[in-house]
């Protein structure tokens, strides 16, 4: 028998609890989890297509259209024609979108500090470094051939 549980067995309950902790914060900022995911994925530079955005956050490209419509109506994102390909749209965060995203993220991370405070500084740094490294892996490297 292995000396540790499977990674998914350890991560899944933690991920569900972290999402449950984020939901009230997101509601306070007028965002759904998908809307927040879009704002995070767009970062500071435009993405060329809705399909690329959907893939980057693990959403179905047809399902994300309503999320983008709402974010645009609220003035949080812009969809502008790509000068290099008029059929494509560039997706970008507006200044208001950045403000809302940054405020929500700051509140979420304040809550996360309670959890991270349970670790020694050395363990915390190692945990965050390892998590960043694993999160940066391409999906097919995790799922295998």
Automatic annotation (TrEMBL):
Alphabetized SMART domains for the sequence: HTH_MARR
Domain of life: Bacteria
HTH marR-type domain segment(s): 4-136
Pfam families reported in the protein's UniProt record: MarR_2 (PF12802)
Xref: PANTHER family: HTH-TYPE TRANSCRIPTIONAL REPRESSOR YETL, TRANSCRIPTIONAL REGULATOR, MARR FAMILY
Protein name: MarR family transcriptional regulator
Organism: Sphaerisporangium flaviroseum
